[in-house]
Each structure stands twice: as C-alpha cells, then as structure tokens.
Amino acid sequence: MAEELFTDPTASKEEQYDLLLKQIASLCEDETSQVANLSNICAALKTTFGWFWIGFYLVDKEQKNLVLGPFQGPIACTRIAKGKGVCGTAWEKKKVLNIPDVNAFPGHIACSALAKSEVVAPILSPLGEVLGVLDVDSETYETFDVTDEQKLKQLCDWIGTHIIQ
Ligand code: SME
Q: Which ligand 1 atom is nearest residue 53's CA?
C-alpha cells in the first residue's frame, strides 16, 4: 500500500485525476475490505481536490434504498429513496448528474445548506446493475465540469468492477 498520496496542484485537472486514479488502484490492490477501500478513496479525493463533502451511498437491496457509506465531510442523511434527490435520480437514470446550482434541482436533498453544486456518479456492476453512487459536493456554484463528470465516472466504473461486490 502507498504510504503517502502525491498531489500536483500545478497540473491540469485531468492530470490530477490521472495521478489520483493510479494511486487509488495501488492503494486498494492488496486490500479486500470494501469499507477500507471506499474510505481511502474518499480521503484521497478530499486530499486532492478539497471538496466540501465526498461520499458513497450504497444500494441496500433489502430496504430498496441508498444507505450512507464511507464519506469525508459533515454528517449527512443516511437513507435516500430511488428517484429522490440527486443521488436517487442518478441511481434511477444510471447517469452522471452534474448540478451547477443545487437550489435549481427539483427535489434536491440538502444535507447541508452550505452545499451549492454537486456531481453524482452511479457505480455499475459488470452486468449494469447500480451498486451505489459517489456524491461530491462543493460550497461554490458551478464547481464541476465535463472533466469531473468523465473522470468520476471512470473512477466509479473501476469501483464497480474492482471494489464493490
Ligand atoms: N444532495 C444529495 C443528498 C446527499 S448529501 O448532499 C451528502 C441529493 O440531493 O441526493
């Protein structure tokens, strides 16, 4: 396991993601615990980009909703129904959602009044079933762009094939 996370704030955002994703792969390669790996992925994203809230919501098949998983940031709501909020909508539509102003998203669930924009990416199994979502929130409007959408999707695709069973 890597003992230190290397970041390069002078690099382009795309390069920062590439550096991060490589390190995440090596950070997780010898560890089989899903909680340990998802926790370190949140911490690595937080260290690299410093966003306000970063976390996973995982599909609870029995309760048929999303339940809060490993995260970094303030306390958050624990359960989200399918189709509710940005997370439940990303689950239902199996799509990355980039919300530049959360107040303009009907049904947005405000875990914190400080969150202003967010991206939610679904985590799909190899069979295309949603296993959970990754939610990243920012304290400023319009924080996320197409690079964030693509790279967070790339990360979630990898998580869906390597980390979550
Ligand atoms: N805003 C999310 C809820 C999760 S919190 O932001 C951590 C939503 O609307 O689904």
A: 7
In tens digits, what is the pLDDT along the chain, a chain of 165 residues?
Answer: 557 999 999 999 999 999 999 999 999 999 999 999 999 999 999 999 999 999 999 999 999 999 999 999 999 999 999 999 999 999 999 999 999 999 999 999 999 999 999 999 999 999 999 999 999 999 999 999 999 999 999 999 999 999 997
Q: Which residue ranges have their beta carbon within 6 Å of ligand 1?
A: 53, 76-77, 80, 85-87, 108-109, 111, 115, 118, 135, 137
6: exposed, middle or buried (Cβ count in 10 Å: 0-12, 13-18, 19+)? exposed
* Domains by residue range for the chain, with CATH: 13-162 (3.30.450.40)
**What does the alpha-carbon distance between residue 6 and residue 127 come to, in Å, rounded to a whole number?**
34
Considering only the C-alpha atoms of the chain, give the largest distance between any 2 of them, rounded to a whole number of Å: 45
Q: How far is the CA of 86 from the centre of ligand 1 (A)?
A: 6
Give the predicted TM-score (pTM) of the model: 0.97
Q: Cα 39 vs. chain centroid, distance in angstroms?
A: 11
Bridge partners of residue 56, in order along the sequence: 134
